[in-house]
């Protein structure tokens, strides 16, 4: 990505995997200056499967749907008149598995919400007093019980399958291996494991030793935009793709791809990747490893072009997704639009909760959990579906406002407007609440930022240096954004902010 124009006779296929659904998106550059057009060719749902060892991902089911999507994508490539094609996979972070010398899996990857990971994180910290602070200084990562380091600790405690492993591959790297036969590890996802040194971006051998992981299974790291290799001939034949189709690694962490898809114009622009999780942060030239950053907590993850994504993980639309599922279990059916409309009709700022409460992160019993959270905070009980949804959205907006204030203080950067991308960009009420709570202009869209970032990193090829501005120029031309300004009832008054301070203080004490 050294500034050369991307070829416009190449079709690009982004395999974009979320933790509940996946899709394959076709993209093509055309025109001068080039613009990107995209089309979703396949979408599917998936979920972790319960086993005696814990919840695991249905890899063969996911793989079947990926191949179906590539077959449909091949038709899009032909119809667009493209002579060549590339493929790249992004997914959620942290989940992966060991692979043997012959390519066989040594166990299925466990879902990051496996309760065993939290127990393993506690066991690790107990074995290594003071390690929690040391881990942040070494890796720059927020302490999360599902970080890969603690998943490996859980496997170690189970006597699990590292013996005989030649490679550890996170999910996109595993699918790239299945597509090409070549084993690689891409940087943006590797940076989420808790096993990479923040100082130099290399694997931390001492941490690998601490969780019983063989150092030799953690090989060289490639940069986003690197060509992994040609698609296997059998897959070219079965999917109908061009003979020279190759796999090009995007930013394989879906949030890293989404941030590529944010048309950031200056160093003061914050990004909010709004989906199941909310990830709010800034792009920086290097990590922030201070004690204050650890206490917030912020995390430092790798981005494209050597940038660091300095951000905070916040409970996102998971709260609404779980509420909708639980209401359906209780006999009340809502789609997302009707639940949003019910929230819109409800009294603003009536009930505030801590959206990051630990019990809300686990699936199931959402209605009871939200009411219990309100009770803990001394807030009115949300007693209708609209009030339940509204308390989630109001509380998320106030959590975003707190995070913006902390971003300014800890990074030393003045935060200006906020770019909102991802599925949450479609949530008009949440966007208005966020503008009101933060007191900042929002630039909303594109909603398909992850797939767009994936496609454009593929399009610019193997040299990732210096291309981020070029990619964002294409995005700005191709996908106009809408602006939301603070105002009206969506701006919380002093009484609301006082109540919010009480809610968050109570959560800190707990």
Summarize the structure.
The protein has 510 residues and is of the alpha/beta class. It starts with 9 loop residues before the first strand and ends with a helix. It contains 18 helices and 15 strands.
Largest sheet: 7 strands, mixed
Euclidean distance between termini CA atoms = 48 Å
Number of helices: 18
**Poorly predicted regions:** 462-466
Helix proportion range: 25-40%
How much of the sequence is in beta strands?
A: 15-25%
Please state the overall shape, judged from the principal axes of the Cα atoms.
Answer: globular
Radius of gyration of CA atoms, rounded to a whole number:
22 Å
Q: What value does the average pLDDT take? A: 93
**How is the largest sheet built, in terms of strand order?**
11-12-10-9-13-14-15
Computed structural class: alpha/beta
Instruction: Let me know the number of strands.
Output: 15
